[in-house]
Amino acid sequence: MSFIDLAVVCAYIAGVVWLGARCARRQHGIRDYFLTGRRVPWWALMGSIVATETSTVTLISIPGYAFGADLTFLQLALGYAAARVVVAGVLLPVLFRGNLLSVYELVSGRFGFAAGRATAGLFLATRSLSDGFRLFATGLVLAAALSLTPLGGALGGVLGPALEPGTALLVVSIGLIAAITLLYTLLGGMLAVVWTDVIQLVVYVGGACVAGVILLGEIPGGWSEVAARTGAAGKLTVFDFALDLSRSYTFWSGFVGGAFITAATHGADQMFVQRYLCGRSLADARRALVASGFVVLVQFALFLGLGLLLWTYYTAYAPDALGALSVAGEVQTDRVFPAFIATHLPAGLRGLLLAAILAAAMSTLSSSLNSSAASTLGDFYLPLTGRSRSEGHYLRAARLATVGWGVVQLAVALAAIPLSRRVIDEVLGIQSFTGGLILGCACLCLLRLRATPAAPLAGMACGAAVLLAARLASDISWQWYALIGSLVTVAAGMLAARMAGAVAADRGTR
């Protein structure tokens, strides 16, 4: 890391903070703060959707997947794209019928506040845990980069007397990322989040393309050699039609399971639904959502292509370098792309790629903070106060809630420091575990059922029990969790509603 690299990263950070401050001028109430006053063009919403679902893990792990396996990850991306069409046609019209701040207000309006708050609480807990660990993972990347500079030694010395030098630098890195993300999100609200997402999308895709061009230049035969070598190794396989529930990234678990995962995240997760509500119209929201599916597919193909380039280069021209990336004789594939960035990119471009990694993380974290604050106000505080306070009061409450969730995510990230990466991966799996439960509640709102809180509450309880049993007693792939959770939640909710209706009818006859 050179001074030029640090200057590039600092310029990027200064730019997003400046943009947040600029967006603060347009806020006159919570609908401006959370929904941008519904004045964002569809293409910006599309970019924000893509950037939000792309984290640091995505940017590093997908090239690593192709390095260690093949192109079957694209089956998951195809499921992601297909599900968006269904969500755009079925769920978006329902969301635009009401004056919603949070998607879980639909559950409250249909089944009562207890059911709505339970669903919102599940979202808030899931988002805080998963994004707290994402913050930790991003801190690892920044700490590793800073450790290669004199500035890293100075920063590590700040907490040196209390902590080990490496841990101290990690704590400082996590704190810096949290503070910067919170600052521009707090100042600019959702408007700042959307436009910084667009910038971040350009930064990390541009950085990946630059890395790909440099990497291709390191391979004498160019694309023809890459295609020949990867084809001979069987790494160009896209479809796997094996019928095995325990395997991930088959056509069935990837396409079908991935479709339900996306239906859960993009159809019932406040972090994504809030973006649609920022659109100028239902047509714009639909256009943004469907287009984002095709962009994500192209983006994943780009990242997988990087993985093929990395595999060709390291196995054919730098096999000795793989020893430093191996543990117990096995290459740690997630370390390959960062290692190439550190050792092969010139000064300035290293800073661009580090900025790209930070951009991928900050887009998700900022969205999480704003959507968590929106759910806190829409599902808890506004009903509690009867919406009787001034707009200024609610705007201050919105910012306070944003700070509160920022502190929670920071606490989760710091608590994750002594945990192993395996535990981290398990915690990140919470999102796929709970997504189906929330999707099931959203589907119950679309059905003609008796309006009783028992329906969604019993549905989520049964869905969670079945998923827990599947997790502990079987080896079913996590890619099936959203499908299983949503189907069980809907079935149990329908049964609970029918039983409540029968009990009410019996009481009526008495």
Produce the secondary structure layout.
Layout: H1 3-23, H2 30-35, H3 42-52, H4 56-68, H5 73-90, H6 92-95, H7 105-111, H8 113-146, H9 150-158, H10 165-217, H11 222-232, H12 251-268, H13 270-276, H14 282-316, E1 326-327, E2 330-331, H15 336-344, H16 349-385, H17 391-415, H18 421-428, H19 430-446, H20 454-473, H21 481-509
Antiparallel strand pairs: 1-2
Helix pairs in contact: 1-10, 1-16, 3-10, 3-14, 4-14, 4-16, 5-12, 5-14, 7-8, 8-10, 8-16, 8-17, 8-19, 9-10, 10-14, 10-16, 10-17, 11-14, 12-13, 12-19, 12-21, 13-16, 16-17, 19-20, 19-21, 20-21
Overview features:
510 residues; 21 helices; mainly alpha; 2 strands; globular; two-stranded antiparallel ribbon; single chain; Sodium/glucose cotransporter
Structure description:
With 510 residues, this protein is mostly helical. It has one domain (3-509): Sodium/glucose cotransporter. Helices cover 77% and strands 1% of the residues. It has a two-stranded antiparallel sheet. Strand 1 (326-327) and strand 2 form a beta hairpin. Helix 10 (165-217) crosses helix 16 (349-385), helix 11 packs across helix 14 (282-316) and helix 12 crosses helix 19 (430-446). The longest helix has 53 residues, at 165-217. The mean pLDDT is 85.
